[in-house]
């Protein structure tokens, strides 16, 4: 039994003895109730027929977010880039990738979004630059101050043999994190791709430069930033070797080592705090009451993640439904106990007065419908949407889109293309980055081009937005209805109880005096179970009405029916949202 599974089991046993009730921090800022939507620009909507998505394509589809109830759209890197690592290899932080459009197009998108009441945040990528960035090109010539913007080392001699400074590995499993530059007779550090050169965050000039980047985009009226790769900014100054892990992998694989020198260093935290201070000072200097927020991305153990709250990070992303702690450990979502444990672990560890958040999918990992099965996706979406806090979703997940099979020849992901035709599928991120499925026309309505940059999933004929909007019941409509319940007072201010029921059901109750309670029940197993809510939740009314149900178990035919709280039958993999009469 894994340590994480054992932890969840202990929580479950404890909860069966004494119900856990969490008080909710009443949201006062817009971002605290966010439904945030990640748009993978290249695959969302093509406006000019070249087969690739762009900013004008997004602008043409803003009504989709309004209709669904999304409050904020998040754009991954929009910057000028050689596109070796999907745009995270940035060659100019204050220019727009010409594949996506122009700076004017970006401004028009932000303006149009704001007119519809939508917020816009963008990725801020401060760990590295592209090796084609002007700073690095000057650094290779030894020109200061640019040479000192990066992390360099002359290496270590073993007799007459020059070797790397240490055994550090890059995250992309390519082996050493050091690359030799003849002109400088030195190695530079790259925690990610060899084409992504780590910035030296011990140099205050780097902070000045990156604050200027933030200011540039703040001037363009963005509403916040998602801060990329926060565990990796600063490395140990001693350059000590990292120790061998217990993983049975090749020595070039990132998880071959324990990353005690290159990840989660204490110097990382004040950097984020300083960026947030800069953003706040900028806003104050404009003399308005606009509220901007930041959120951080990093795959780490819970103790490291929670520290970000203490350094003015509005919230660190909660990836526990995707990854368990470290980036190499896939999340375990096999049982109701696992789901229950993820909810409780976050709420138990989150500092008082902070805002929770929940993430089911993103651009780096397989789609939630593929990972847990379509028959379970409605229930998990209902539960995370009706828990307190921010919910972040990946484009297409609202439709139940699944990963697309792509051949070796069809693959574009740089990391996968560097692999072999037998191992590429283990690395490629292309299967979940295929075009958004708008309708059943050419290229699923994504483009007028019949051969888009990645092929469309063949299931687009039935799995598409137009079809799901017309259907009586669909993944899209279930998510839309769950989002609507977030506008209720009980969702905003009510307590939350999370329970493991009969070892196979996750139950969530949101209650507030004078308001109709919300109850979510998801049966994670393939057997029918009857639930008596009196054994788990106090204060519920005797009868509850069915508001939302998954589309596979047959429950959707019972929408509007009344259930006795003491006897609710959940079919296999069935999930439901129930509403009660006003609490006493």
CATH topology of the domain at 127-200 and 231-262: Oligo-1,6-glucosidase, domain 2
What is the arithmetic mean of pLDDT? 94
Q: What is the 3D shape?
A: globular
Helix content: 25-40%
The number of helices is 17
**Ends distance:** 43 Å
The major pleated sheet works out as: 8 strands, parallel
Strand order of the largest sheet: 16-15-14-6-3-2-18-17
Strand content: 15-25%
Q: Segments where pLDDT lies below 50 for 5+ residues? A: 1-18
The appropriate CATH architecture of the domain at 127-200 and 231-262 is: Alpha-Beta Complex
Structure at a glance:
The protein is an alpha/beta fold and 584 residues long. Helices cover 26% and strands 18% of the residues.
Plain-language structure description:
It contains 17 helices and 26 strands. The strands form 7 sheets. An 8-stranded parallel sheet has the order 16-15-14-6-3-2-18-17, with helices on one face. A 7-stranded antiparallel sheet has the order 1-19-20-21-26-23-24. It is 26% helix and 18% strand. The two termini are 43 Å apart. The longest helix is centred in the middle third of the chain and has 18 residues, at 268-285. Strand 11 and strand 12 form a beta hairpin. By secondary structure, the chain is of the alpha/beta class. It has a domain at 127-200 and 231-262: Oligo-1,6-glucosidase, domain 2, CATH 3.90.400.10. The protein is globular, with a radius of gyration of 24 Å.
